[in-house]
Amino acid sequence: MYLRQLSIRNFRSWRAIDVSFEPGPSVLIGANGQGKTNIAEAVMYVASLSSHRSPTDAPLIRVGAEQAIIGAIVVAGGRELRIEIEISAGRSNRAKLNGAVLPRPRDVLGGLRATLFAPEDLAIVRGDPAERRRFLDDLLVARTPRLAGVRADYERVLKQRSALLKSARPLRWGGTPHAGNGDVLATLDVWDAHLAATGAALLAARLRLVAALRPYTVASYSHVAPLAPGLSLRYVTALAAKDEPPAEEATLEAALLTELARRRRDELERGVNLVGPHRDDLELRLGELPVRSYASHGESWSAALALRLGGYELLRDDSAPEVGPVLVLDDVFAELDAARRDQLAVAASKAEQTLVTAAVSSDVPEALHGARYDVSEGGVRRVA
Q: Which residue in 9, 137, 316, 355 has the most C-beta neighbors within 10 A?
């Protein structure tokens, strides 16, 4: 799989650009602030319908515009797919595939498969659990696009249930629910069932993903940091004290219902959802020590790189050769030492297509010196 053409209208800093690419490495060189990362972000938005830099879509629309449009022509297995995504302010987004409007934007997922490496990846290792959950869920959807629906359903249930818990404030004071809220506990039982069902589906998918990802990540870390203690991964959930629970939806659903009943008083007192996979974490350890608390800067980068490399290798091995993921390396080489640059370059050399952004060409390993583009003065032009 490779991206043959990218068209951007009113996305971030770009008013309008059209860039053609070929298989193999393509390097976009430009000074900071010229829009290189915005191009990488647009590519990944087509692949994931989300930004690695913003939790909402509003900042993606160019100041003064009402809508941003990203178009992509993707070649996979000898066929071309034309993808267009409209990001609108105050309205639902739309997606088209080969000119036809899709019922839901997420139906376009899988049309372009891509993996991103970026300086923000360090947050996966050093940041809050939400960063690691997002890493897992993004990889989950990239691997199995239909799970975007499971993720969306779970988030919808959380939102509805949170509103219900907040409306139950008189119960937290030990009083009687206000008028119109007398059935709050019965309604909460219904939403508990929804949370347990959707949460079990998401949790089972995450557990299967971690099991599949683990050997790839461990092997990648041993290559990136051969002298360091081994990296280990464990999915941490309140449903299991020590070991990861089995990835069986029925068992997980029953366990979630039990935990919801046990924590109901706490949830009513605090007015928030305290049970479910939105509270889980991916624990990373070097030997016996947690990476987040004890790893050095270099060790943290090695762990982040191993996670991304592991995810990329998993996606590639999951795919038929003609639909392997595009690799996007956004200004990441400047953050890495020589050994880690070389390891990333080895992985990138296996991709059918690699898109690289850098401030200076000397940051890019020789193995990735393919087509070169100059990004400056509000435009992108190929120079080699």
A: 355
- Alpha helices, DSSP H only, in the chain? 36-48, 122-126, 129-143, 147-167, 169-172, 184-224, 249-262, 264-270, 291-294, 297-318, 338-349
**Tokens 């160019």 correspond to what residue?**
62
HSE-up of 170 (CA within 13 Å, CB side)? 11
pTM of the full structure? 0.90
User: Rounded to whole angstroms, how far apart are CA atoms 54 and 45?
Assistant: 11
Q: Judge contact between 27 and 373, C-beta under 8 A.
A: yes
pLDDT tens-digit series, residues 332-356: 988 888 888 888 888 888 889 999 9
Give the separation between CA 82 and CA 353, rounded to whole angstroms. 18
All domains of the chain, ordered by start, with CATH? 1-113+319-384 (3.40.50.300), 122-318 (1.20.1050.90)
Per-residue burial over 53-92, b if 16 or more Cβ lie within 10 Å, else e, is: beeebeebbbeeeebbbbbbbbbbeeeebbbbbbbeeeee
Radius of gyration of the chain (CA): 22
Please identify every stretch of the chain with a pLDDT value under 50, giving residue numbers as ranges.
173, 176-180
Rounded Cα gap, residues 105 and 95, in angstroms: 5
pLDDT, tens digit (0-9, with 9 covering 90-100), for 249-292: 999 999 999 999 999 989 988 999 999 999 999 999 999 999 99
CB atoms near residue 359 (< 10 Å): 17
In the prediction, which pLDDT does 87 show?
Answer: 96
Q: 74 pairs with which residues across the strands?
A: 3, 81
The tokens 């100059």 sit on which residue? 374
